[in-house]
Amino acid sequence: MSDNKSYFPALNDVMTAEHTLAEILSPTPLMHNRNLSERYGADVMLKREDLQMVRSYKIRGAYNKIRSLAPDRTASGIVCASAGNHAQGVALSCNKLGIAGKIFMPVTTPKQKINQVKMFGGEFVEVVLTGDTFDQANAAAMETCEREGKTFIRRSTTQRSSRVRAPSGWRYCNRAARRWITSSCPSAAEVSPRASAASTNRCRRRRRS
């Protein structure tokens, strides 16, 4: 399936990704945000993926994808192009898995981000600064892959990497949604998953009236 088509991962794929990511990540909390809750008149919860080592959820897609590759796909090393979070996720993944990586970044990338990528990658990662834009750095990365036989790791838009977005919050969301529905509207306890969002909204309106 091509990357530009809609993809919805199966629950088994999500659970497999969760177990894979448990090798290097700890669960991040779901926290109530007062400002947003007051602004929108709702209980707004934020998933604190900024507490990950690389300060974003991008480590999830990068690690899950690289970890899934067969040895012959990583023997020659991997390549990615990024100006920030994805680069850090790939760098840390290479370090943890002992795989050589080459990360292409635009020359305009802030020095702090470049240093972070080098720190996370350590001896396993080489940072290549090229081009003034991401597109130019990405083109150089693709050329290197073809020339050197390396594997390109895209940003979180592929099937394998998109599976990891759900493990970060599906346990919390399912648990919280069921608790809200059954405590606020007992009659909605047997509502189907497809209709749960609409039922929750109706319950919320009744509670406010």
Can you put this structure into words, describing what you see?
- With 209 residues, the protein is an alpha/beta fold.
- Among the domains are: 58-162, Rossmann fold; 169-209, no CATH class.
- It is 50% helix and 11% strand.
- The strands form two sheets. A four-stranded parallel sheet has the order 5-4-3-6, with helices on both faces. It has a two-stranded antiparallel ribbon with strand order 1-2.
- Strand 4, helix 6 (111-121) and strand 5 (125-129) form a beta-alpha-beta unit.
- Helix 3 (58-68) crosses helix 5 (85-97) and helix 9 (170-184) crosses helix 10 (196-208).
- The model is unreliable at 158-164, 166-174 and 180-209 (pLDDT under 50).
Key features of this structure:
four-stranded parallel β-sheet; 209 residues; Rossmann fold; two-stranded antiparallel sheet; 10 helices
Percent in helix: 40-55%
CATH class of one domain: Alpha Beta
Separation, N- and C-terminal Cα atoms: 48 Å
- Listing every helix as H and every strand as E from the N terminus to the C terminus, the arrangement reads HEHEHHEHEHEHEHHH
Largest sheet composition = 4 strands, parallel
Please give the order of strands in the largest beta sheet: 5-4-3-6
Inertia-based shape? globular
C-alpha-based Rg, rounded: 20 Å
Structural class: alpha/beta
Mean pLDDT: 78
What is the CATH third-level topology name of one domain?
Answer: Rossmann fold
CATH architecture of one domain: 3-Layer(aba) Sandwich
Per DSSP E runs of 2 or more residues, the count of β-strands stands at 6
Low-confidence stretches: 158-164, 166-174, 180-209
What share of residues are in beta strands? 5-15%
Number of helices: 10
